[in-house]
Amino acid sequence: MRDASDLLQGTLDMLILKAVSLGPLHGYGVLLRIQQLSRDVLDVRQGSLYPALYRLQSAGLIASTWGRSENQRRAKFYRLTPRGRRQLDSEQERWDRLAGAVAAVMDSRPEEV
Amino acid sequence: MLDRLRASLRMTLGRQRYESGLEEELREHLERRAEDLVAAGMDAAEAHRRARAELGNVEAIKEECREATGLAWLHAFGRDLRHGFRLLRRNPGFAAVAVVTLALCIGANTALFSVVDAALFRPLPYPQPDRLGQVVRRAAQAPESTPDVSVDGATWERVRDSVPDLQAAAFSDWTTGVNLLADGRASYVQQQKVSAGFFAVLGVAPRVGRGFTHQEDRPGGATVAVLSDALWRDLFAADPGVVGRRVTLRGEPYEVVGVMPSGFRSTVPADLWTPLRPSTEGEGTGTNYAVVARLAPESTWAQVDGEVAAVGRPRFGTDAGDATQVLGVEPLQRTHGQDLRRPLLLLWMAVVAVLLIGCLNLASLLLSRAAVRGREMATRMAIGGGRGPLVRQLLAEGMALALCGGALGLAVGELTLPLLLRFASPLGYDLDASIDGRVLAAMGLLSLGTTVLFGLYPAWKLSGTSVREAMSDCAERVAGSGARHWPRRLLVVAEIALAVVLLVSATLLVRSLAHLRQVDPGFETDGLVTAAVSLQDARYDTAGEIERLFRDSLERIAAAPGVSAAGVALTGPYERPLNVPFVRSGDAPEQRSLTNMVYVAGDYFTALGVPLLRGRALRPGDRGGAPRVALVNHAFVDRYLADSRVLGQRLDANGEEWEIVGVVGDVVQRASFGDFEPLAHTPTVYVPAGQLPDDWVAMVHGWFTPSWTVRAPGGQAAAAEAVRQALQEADPTLPIARLGDVGDLRDRSLVAQRFQAWLMGCLALLALLLAGIGLAGLVGSGVSERRRELGVRLALGSSRGRAVASAVLPGLALAAAGLAAGALASPLAVRLLQGLLWGIAATDPATVAVVVVALLAVAGLGSLLPALHVVRLDPAATLRRE
Lengths: 113, 882
Description:
- The structure holds two protein chains of two kinds.
- By secondary structure, chain A is α+β, with helices and mostly antiparallel strands.
- Chain A has helices at residues 11-21, 27-37, 46-58, 82-107, and strands at 2-3, 25-26, 42-43, 62-68, 74-80.
- Chain A has a single domain (2-107), classed as Arc Repressor Mutant, subunit A (Orthogonal Bundle), CATH 1.10.10.10.
- In chain B, α12 (338-382) runs parallel beside α14, α18 (486-517) packs across α27 (800-832) and α18 (486-517) crosses α28.
- The interface between A and B is medium-sized, with 25 and 30 residues.
């Protein structure tokens, strides 16, 4: 497993936005979803998850409400705001470009240069 | 953008909720993680441990979250404030002294300023109050001295007719208590007389009906009245159809023409208004009117002042005019309450001085804490505390102090203000004072400034010294540790000097009051009963009528058991008498002078116990139709008849000629003219009530309430009852306005002086107390810093007495320095008190003695109490510490 904080600056925020875009999640749920979606490759350091959530919330990209979880426990659920949706779209685009560029570099063979 | 704003607003405002939410969220996280781990086959305890380890330091996460949402500073500040309160709790002595000092200063200042503001500064409750003025008479030689706001009828008419830039109205600036009958109900109300246009000039329209017309406002005009809102509600249950209803005032029917709105305040507290009917006759011959005026929109004060001055000299019943005075216009804001202006401004200065002492005290206290905490601060910096947090904490401590002091000060102010108002109420002003938010804010900022400024001193000081130096013990070992105490010593000397100045002022005022109370009354004060009865009544406006009433009632009273003599006088001892111009018969009119004139009936002088010095007393035969006769008092002879014969001398006064037939002793009266002390033996002419001109009788009863004076060797209570009964039998509809003894009169006559003296006295005591606390604090910290040195001295055989003395003496030296500085500054304060001091010199030896003794007592106590700690020092313990 890789620590997500090793990833590029700002990537954690993007991953969180993506995770909550698929449906409201509580903090621990965000952690599990990222883990699951990355097929256990990415492991977000738990200590940096909550400050990131609060930062995104304070920036108005996600919003939170208290509700009941699947096993009827009180939990705070995060969901994407319209502003967060726009932010996620632009991050997605930026990431696709970046990932494509990196892949192109890495996939290059001597004869292509 | 909006989302973002809303999010951070929600977080900032709901900090408490937010904190507990974060806490719960993290707890929830830990539990879920532990459950998952257990589900994966881990032992429960191990799972919880693991979950916590994975999450990391919960406090650090919380802090990061706060920082992420911009709440960090708020949180840190709250923490510092809590820390500040904790520190205060840990030093209860310091905290108590500092907080109580602040509370007393803030409380006294807010309360007194609220009164000053209500009386002098707050804009008058009329539209465009800055355009309202009053016509005044200024002394030609001293235009800066307090002007006189009263004018005579001729002056009023000239101002009214020849100053186009003024919309003016005359009024009488006092009220008279009158009996009012409405719907069969009698009540005693305060009536003010105002001329047509008075309400319009002030800019307040009646809520119902109208004001007075010019037809009503001339001699012989219709008898109409305007009611105050309160009286309207009380008498007519706020009936809007009140206009046209009739009330009986002083035995005459009056028609109600209007009702003023509820917020309306006249120049004096009044319940109802009637037309003034100004003229150049009767009361218009004297300066019995006041004139309020509104400036025309484009005119300036200087321009209008010049126009009024150009009207001519103020006239006092003659065509020659009064060359010593000039007319002018002053803003109403200045003339309203001008009697109170000087005493109130002085008291305000005094209370600001107390505030200054309090701040100096606080500064000194904080400096002493700085000395004690130098090491704590140095330690914190040595272990990497950083200056930022240190400064923040000191700020928070100062803020905690200021908050406590401010809150308590508000409470002190709220408690003091009603007392102050009740104390001031006999002054006769309608003071609508409440704690003023601006003052409170100003006081709060000042105390905050003081605490923060001097609270930061340790941080500032540390920047000058190396951490190692401050950490080392050597500072404590140095015996003198002198130089760094100089700032505190100067503060304490300044405090003491200020306290001395206040003490001198207060003692002089109190001694003046004592002097005035001790002015020889000139009569036997014990065993007297006086009853004041208003004769402002249409049934009593001829000399014959009042003579009949006096004779009838006095016969009944004199017949009562326990009464030895009874009489009536227009004004009695300690009252302000009527003054009239007069000349000796045969002298030119330019030689006219002023004298008091009092009508008497019955055995007035016998009842008072005033001796007849020469000639004969007044007799029952000196009545209407008989030759007019008068008695004069000793002061009159001294002042006006020193070089001429007395008995047989004729005087021209109010259009009649009076022959002096006797001389009586002086009785103390309130001065109403000349340069007499407030209570003095003023020249007075006594005339028989039955010989007065009729027009004069009605006029003086509009101003004065005559008093029945009864000598009661058989007990005052029984005599008072006899007076009540006799008056009831003589005329059942006459209300007694006041029934009491002479002591009441004396106290009422000195109410302004007592107000000043007592308030100044309280402030001086407060100042002395604060200065004493400041001194004690300084001596105390000196002792605690020298504990080691003093302990060593004791161990080496020095006597405890000498050790104590060595701690006390510096305190006394500071007190002496403060006393000297205060003595140098006092003449300035005494100059401010000029005109309020009577019968004592500024260098009054008794005052000096009182001040020196009081100060030395406080300084001695303030130095000795902390120095006594030396006695409890254990030399052995000191040596062991060495």
